[in-house]
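Hi U.,

Before I forget, here's the chain from the pilot set. I'm dumping it here mostly so it's searchable later in email.
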Amino acid sequence: MPQRPIPKPTPETAEFWAGARRHELRIQRCRACGRAYFFPRPFCPRCSSHDVEWFTASGRGRLYSYVINHRPPPGFQDAAPYVIAVVELDEGPRMMSNVVGVEPSPERLPADLPLEVAWEQLSEEITVPLWRPLGGGS
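Structure:
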């Protein structure tokens, strides 16, 4: 049984989920203005151009913000507490996910903590990106 609800891919997100199955963090970039962005959509959120492309991000980022959740919502089987975070990718966009592999305490989660992507397979079709401290954590 999965530890969390399983996301449902849409036509706009299919490439993201296909990449995640291969352990590739796929995001989009605008060819007109050069800006990378996340969440997937068919146009650039900065300049509205439809000239966009998918690329594989580095899988590295920094902790931008977080909250330590002590009570899992319905459908999540994870043992509380756990970290819900906003991660700023090295490529610029921000992504919401969980930070794993580190004690969920403010002392262990300083602002700008370097992070790397980790993967959790929820089903044959869906693998989700999670984040852990770069180099394995503390």
